[in-house]
Amino acid sequence: MTIPVDPLAPATARTTPLRIGPQMLPGIALLAILAIGLASSLYALLFKTSELPAETVSWSRLADGDTTAAVSHFLQKANPLENPLVTFDRVSSYLVTGDLGARVQRGCDNWLFLTDELALDSGRLANLTRRLTIVRSVAAYLQSRRIALVVVLVPDKSRVQAVQLCGIDRPTLLANRLADFEAQLRQAGIAVVDVLQAMNAVGGELYYRTDTHWNERGAKAAADAIAAALRQAGLAPTQKAEFKISTDPMQERVGDLIRLAGLDRVAWPFRPHGDEEAATVIKQSAAESVGILDETPPPELAVIGTSFSRRANFVPFLALALTAPVDNRALDGGGVVNAAIDYFAKPDFINSPPRAIVWEIPERMLEKGAPDSDDAWAKSLGVPQTVK
After folding, report:
1. Tens digits of per-residue pLDDT, 210-226?
2. Which of 186, 173, 185, 178 is nearest to 160 (CA)?
3. What are phi and psi of 270, to 5 degrees?
4. What pLDDT, in 10s, does the model give residues 17-56?
5. In 3-state terms, what secondary structure has residue 348?
6. Pseudo-torsion of CA 175, 181, 182, 184, nearest 10°?
7. pTM assigned to the model
8. Which of 329, 268, 337, 322 lies closest to 304, judged by CA?
9. How far apart, in whole angstroms, are the C-alpha atoms of residue 111 and residue 355?
10. What are phi and psi of 186, to 5 degrees?
11. Nearest to 142 by CA among 363, 377, 355
12. Of 146, 141, 148, which is closest to residue 382 (Cα–Cα)?
């Protein structure tokens, strides 16, 4: 049926065809997500109410909010489309506007950067002072046990790969943060290895494009510099090990920045392409002089720190450079001190401590706030622990 148009009607009153442009797609996607989410929530309420704890549903508990909270938790758990809806939202935002969420920024040539690394935290100078105090307390504690400490500050990805920022603003107030903190550590008599200089000397790509961590090229440059510094200081392990090196086939490596953007559950091209990597496989064995029945002493060198020490073969590269075993005690998501807290409480550390410890600390964590428990733990290190 055709609706006639009055030729004498004003132009503004005439019917015009609806045109859907790219700028409308995010809104359409949002409406679709809301509609599907409502439908799936109704489905959960109609067909899965038996999973809702009966004791949480009552008029009295509704008044104090317990029932509302229980229903909300139930819908989050029982909604069969919760994860797909979130993924669809992230994919549609990425495809239409290039949005990667609040915590990820895109540079050029598929280089992704962590927003946290580029932010100026309130109280950042006070946080730096707290970090320095904690490191000094740990160094004094280890010195009381005749354990040498070597600190390694991992430079920001946005510092090392600054040419790939391509318009992303890195605050100028961060320019001297790394060098200033290293200088303060040296003034306190704490050994520091400047891995930034070693990495700059190698050049090229030293971090994964889609990950916050250094790649194997960067990890090896840092490991080689640390090994050289340990030898110069007379802290290289006397133990020996042998290594066999091979290379895995080239494959895509989906970085943690893609996961932070909420796009790791979909395939390319619905997300940024991951890094192409032929990962190195480093297998360690005892030296030929060590017999099968010989008792193997614990490694003389240990590494504490963060996920940087658990990525890109950093610790295996360090062991390879030293031709010696290295005890990796770093923790994923451990912050600055969690690995130290965990390791220092272990019986093997208390009874058979290493000769030296390498403490890896990411630059981006220096100015971040820390719980008061970190300070309390550092102060508690005044008296060395003993185990009977």
Report:
1. 999 999 999 999 999 99
2. 178
3. -85, 10
4. 445 455 555 555 555 545 555 555 555 545 555 554 554 4
5. helix
6. 140
7. 0.79
8. 329
9. 40
10. -65, -40
11. 355
12. 141
